[in-house]
Write a structure and sequence with these properties.
Elements: H1 7-15, H2 17-23, H3 26-29, E1 38-39, H4 51-61, H5 76-90, E2 99-102, H6 104-116, E3 122-127, H7 133-139, E4 143-148, H8 158-164, E5 169-175, H9 187-204, E6 209-213, E7 236-241, E8 254-257, H10 265-279, H11 286-295, H12 302-319, E9 331-332, H13 341-349, E10 353-354, E11 356-357, E12 367-370, H14 375-394
Parallel strand pairs: 1-10, 3-4, 3-5, 5-6, 6-7
Antiparallel strand pairs: 2-8, 7-8, 9-12, 11-12
Helix pairs in contact: 1-7, 4-11, 5-11, 6-7, 6-10, 12-14
Bound molecules: pyridoxal-5'-phosphate (PLP).
The site of pyridoxal-5'-phosphate has 13 residues, from helix 6.
Length: 398
């Protein structure tokens, strides 16, 4: 690696090589901008944002005083609304001062890691991970320790997490509801994890924080309810975002919430503020902060998302794919009908159906479909999914 880039960053780039190769695959990527493509790759909007969302931004873009676009501290009405909304959602009582506004979940994850991790501290994270967990841990000068979810049902492997804890463990990073498996971790699992972390923190005489990435907490199917580890373990940092519920992830808005009962909350509040100063301003832009009270109650049409889920799960299973209905999130995670998931994704891409190879999310042999695709994209894609699996079964070369 050349000396033009900091060696620390070069290490992070190396850690992401598998992901970068899969996500930048030229055979898949060259169709991404084609309007005729059915794009299931990412949790991105495939339609215009809702008029309601656009009107909220327009309203708050109009300056009402000279300070409107001045440097900002956290906007109090935004913190109050977020605390009230989250208290209702999770059944816990959050203090507005414990809402740290951030640039989406990505910003919240970075802030949480910077606040608690000392150089060389170990951070256990789950695999399959969200794309950037390892890079974020390395970016905070931590040491990533990867633990797989259980292969049978994708539940958290609490015993494996317990076995991986060392005197240097500083945090455990989980994601529920889980991208890409769609699993919501249950009360028993989270209760067991909480007691493992209580015991280990006492043994180590140093707090092990639980960082809970709850980006999909409002994208729930079948009347499922969000279960937060914050209800079981007070030393949790809960990461929330509006990228999913409003489906406008280019507008950066989210927060870290400290649950009631978090020890040392005054120190933590101050540390989050200072982390913002030392790493570049992490606050969402002024317009997003003003608009938060309106955006908090907005949601994409979950009934429609669930109908797309059901339609695709039924159709794919009928064709011979193996796929479970997710409990939550935007994603389906079917098995690829051949071992090489990148080759399979390229075969679909040749017919303008774009999926994420499982390799990009440490799930080789699978592929991921985002349900944010439109109905028209699904109409066009289903015959292609059918043709490709039947050609593979018949041994037709691609
Ligand atoms: C599990 C998970 N965490 C975090 C994020 C980042 O969300 P945001 O756009 O709010 O930064 C995503 C986005 O895809 C995600 O899937």
């Amino acid at each position: 690696m050349s000396d033009e880039v900091a060696s620390h960053l070069s290490g992070i780039i190396r850690s992401m090589s598998g992901f970068l190769a899969a996500i930048m695959d030229p055979e898949i990527g060259r169709h991404a901008a084609d309007p005729a493509a059915s794009n299931f790759i990412a949790g991105n909007p495939q339609e215009l944002a809702s008029p309601e969302y656009v009107r909220a931004l327009q309203r708050w873009a109009e300056p009402k005083d000279k300070d409107w676009f001045g440097y900002k501290m956290p906007h109090r009405p935004a913190q109050i609304t977020a605390a009230e909304g989250l208290s209702k959602e999770l059944g816990l009582s959050f203090d507005p001062d414990d809402i740290v506004l951030t640039r989406g979940a990505h910003g919240g994850l970075a802030a949480a890691l910077i606040v608690v991790v000392d150089p060389g501290d170990e951070v256990i994270f789950i695999s399959p991970p969200w794309f950037f967990y390892e890079a974020l841990i390395l970016g905070a000068h931590g040491k990533p320790v990867k633990i797989r979810v259980k292969p049978s049902d994708f539940d958290l492997d609490v015993d494996a997490i317990a076995a991986a804890i060392s005197p240097r463990t500083r945090a455990v990073l989980i994601n529920t509801p889980h991208n890409p498996t769609g699993r919501i971790f249950g009360e028993n699992t989270l209760g067991a994890l909480a007691s493992v972390l209580e015991d280990a923190s006492a043994r180590n005489r140093r707090t092990i924080y639980l960082i809970s990435d709850e980006a999909y907490s409002r994208i729930l199917f079948d009347g499922n309810r969000m279960i937060t580890p914050g209800a079981f373990y007070a030393r949790s940092l809960l990461i929330h975002t509006y990228s999913k519920s409003a489906l406008a992830p280019g507008q950066r808005l989210g927060y870290v919430a400290l649950p009631p009962g978090m020890p040392g909350r005054d120190h933590l509040r101050r540390a989050f503020m200072v982390a913002g100063f030392s790493t570049g301003n992490m606050l969402p832009d002024a317009i997003m902060q003003y608009a938060l009270p309106e955006i908090d109650t907005m949601s994409i049409d979950l009934a429609h998302l669930q109908r797309k889920r059901d339609r695709m799960v039924d159709a794919l299973n009928e064709m011979g794919y193996q796929v479970q209905a997710p409990q939550a999130t935007f994603y389906l995670l079917p098995r690829a009908p051949i071992e090489d998931d990148v080759l399979f994704a390229r075969t679909l891409a040749a017919q303008k159906v774009l999926v994420l190879p499982g390799t990009a999310v440490e799930m080789p042999g699978y592929f991921r479909i985002s349900l944010t695709a439109t109905d028209a994209m699904i109409d066009r894609a289903l015959p292609v999914f059918a043709e490709v699996i039947s050609n593979l079964a018949a041994g037709v070369p691609r």
